[in-house]
Structure to design on (148 residues):
């Protein structure tokens, strides 16, 4: 997570809010490292798996910094704490549901784990495509809205 924060600081001129869909697509590509790690021997597979998780964590930290910064910019000062608290509450509520879903999918695809990771990759690419349209429409609103 520290590397993600440093990465935002170092690459802030190259990164913009318009590139959020690209960041989510790159996070999805990190899942492919997990699928590939299954096919290697123990130590090499572990290293590929570790690199894949580090890559995903780095990009998710960059994503969180951009999203939370935007939320704080667009939210009136007197509501920032409430809005951030609500977002964190929803995130905490959804964690067990996500773990349950992943556990169920893992059981379904237990015979072919590579297919499991490909399924997750396709889902994340779909999320990336949806975020492209959401943030694209959000860009037109940003120039006209003012913070209260």
């Amino acid at each position: 997570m520290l590397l993600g924060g440093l990465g935002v600081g170092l690459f802030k001129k190259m990164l913009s809010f318009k590139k959020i869909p690209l960041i989510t697509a790159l996070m999805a590509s990190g899942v492919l490292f997990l699928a590939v790690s299954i096919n290697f021997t123990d130590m090499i597979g572990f290293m590929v798996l570790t690199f894949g998780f580090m890559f995903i964590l780095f990009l998710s930290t960059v994503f969180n910094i951009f999203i939370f910064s935007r939320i704080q910019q667009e939210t009136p000062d007197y509501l920032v704490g409430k809005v951030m608290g609500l977002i964190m509450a929803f995130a905490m509520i959804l964690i067990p549901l996500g773990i349950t879903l992943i556990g169920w999918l893992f059981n379904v695809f237990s015979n072919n784990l590579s297919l499991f990771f490909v399924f997750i990759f396709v889902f994340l690419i779909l999320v990336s495509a949806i975020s492209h349209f959401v943030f694209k429409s959000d860009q037109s609103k940003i120039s006209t809205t003012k913070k209260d």
